Amino acid sequence: MSDTIASASHTAALARFGHALSDPTRVGVLLALRAEPAYPSDLAERLGVSRQVMSNQLACLRGCGLVESVPDGRRASYRLADGHLAAALDELLRVTLVVEPGCCAGETCTCA
Fold it and tell me: Which InterPro entries does this UniProt record tie to the protein (predicted)?
């Protein structure tokens, strides 16, 4: 893979994925949808956020191309936009990060 150079679209896709993973609520949504589609109200209840917050986070994830809505009568459920996302999230959960003790604590990150 060393001879493969990341294209601008690859870079943009991973940047969108990174943005999605930068918020705990969005991560919770992605992890919940890994198992099965869900309604926004159920996701909000499960994650302990308001419906408005959930609506905003789902809009962000839709904009990133990670989730899609599925009409269901007058309601819509959400699912991961691509089946590979579930496997990618599973792999990320297997990664063990070695972090400096003072890095990424709270709002300030000394990694950059």
Answer: ArsR-like_HTH (IPR011991), HTH_ArsR_DNA-bd_dom (IPR001845), HTH_Metal-responsive_Reg (IPR052543), WH-like_DNA-bd_sf (IPR036388), WH_DNA-bd_sf (IPR036390)
Q: Is the pLDDT of residue 58 over 50?
A: yes
In sequence order, which residues have a C-beta less than 8 Å from that of residue 67 and are 6 or more positions away?
Answer: 29, 30, 33, 58, 61, 78, 79, 80, 81
Q: Nearest CA to 36 among 78, 91, 67?
A: 78
Q: What is the pLDDT of residue 1?
A: 46
The Cα diameter of the chain in Å comes to: 50
Roughly what angle, to the nearest 10 degrees, separates helices 24-35 and 40-47? 120
pTM above 0.85, yes or no: no
Structural domains of the chain, ranges and CATH numbers in brackets? 8-94 (1.10.10.10)
What is the C-alpha to C-alpha distance for residues 48 and 97, in angstroms, rounded to an integer? 27
